């Protein structure tokens, strides 16, 4: 990896984290719910987009460098497995088992399904 690609991945990661912060804030301000809806929307949408980017890379429509920048940088910074894990544990500690299951398992299943859909879309273009 070149120094320029490394720098681009780092900058894209910062941008992705910033977008995540804004999206989560907008969702939290408009929808008052104890369920971590913002994190769910972020992880599911990020999985879909990463699937598309990966499909485009596999179809040779996106270069390996852009795959790293967009996938590992931007979308890696945007999605947040660690926050989802902490939110699931918090729900379990509050004995809110159904929301914890929906967050932990539901987000995982939904993310894998939309990642597959995104991959299919990216390969289909």
Automatic annotation (TrEMBL):
Catalytic activity: fluoride(in) = fluoride(out)
GO cellular component assignments: plasma membrane
Signal peptide: none
Pfam family, one: CRCB
Activity regulation info: Na(+) is not transported, but it plays an essential structural role and its presence is essential for fluoride channel function.
Chief place of localization: membrane
Membrane-spanning parts: 40-59, 66-86, 98-123
The UniProt record lists the keyword Metal-binding: yes
Family: Belongs to the fluoride channel Fluc/FEX (TC 1.A.43) family.
Protein known as: Fluoride-specific ion channel FluC
Organism annotation: Cryobacterium roopkundense
Lineage: Bacteria, Bacillati, Actinomycetota, Actinomycetes, Micrococcales
Gene: fluC
């Amino acid at each position: 990896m070149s120094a320029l690609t490394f720098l681009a991945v780092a900058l894209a990661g910062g941008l992705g984290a910033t977008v995540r912060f804004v999206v989560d804030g907008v969702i939290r301000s408009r929808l008052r719910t104890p369920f971590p809806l913002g994190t769910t929307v972020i992880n599911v949408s990020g999985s879909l987009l990463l699937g598309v980017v990966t499909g485009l890379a596999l179809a040779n429509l996106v270069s390996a460098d852009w795959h790293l920048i967009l996938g590992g940088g931007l979308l890696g910074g945007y999605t947040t497995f660690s926050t989802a894990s902490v939110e699931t544990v918090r729900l379990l500690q509050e004995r809110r088992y159904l929301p914890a299951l929906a967050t932990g398992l539901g987000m995982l299943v939904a993310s894998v399904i939309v990642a597959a859909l995104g991959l299919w879309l990216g390969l289909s273009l």
